[in-house]
Amino acid sequence: MINHKLLCLILLVIGSNFMNSQKIDYKLLLGIEHNNLVGDTIQLEKNTFDAFEKMKKAALQDGVNIKIVSGFRDFERQKKIWNSKFERFTNEYKLSPNEAINEIIRFSTIPGTSRHHWGTEIDVIDKDFENEKDPLIAKKYEKVGFSTNLKNGWIKIQ
User: Fold this and answer.
1) Which of 30, 109, 122, 125 sits most deeply, having the most CB atoms within 10 A of its CB?
2) What's the CATH code of the domain at 60?
């Protein structure tokens, strides 16, 4: 029989040694520094941009005119979004801090944990469709390498 505590300890030691052997650029990870972005008003990591262009072409062939509404956002922008929502939920809607956090994380993530910081996550809508959170559109384009978060309807690159 396997000793689960010993197994966990071994995995922890191996994992920490692996992490210590890797050079991690925390400023890049948290979206504080960014040097591989392309685009004008909405910036994306280069591979993400190329993948989106393929998706956009596939969508147009299906008669769907998509556009990105959000791409790269740095730590400070994510923090501003988070704080604004927190203030609104606690002051205007009178939620407790814990209730506000639970509501915010339904659609937003805590600053420092967003893939938007890397320019690899995008929020996409159909420019010609009034309900931009249509899950059927999101589901259709999984075939070209995009995955979806149908909880809130946004298409996201993994």
Assistant:
1) 122
2) 3.30.1380
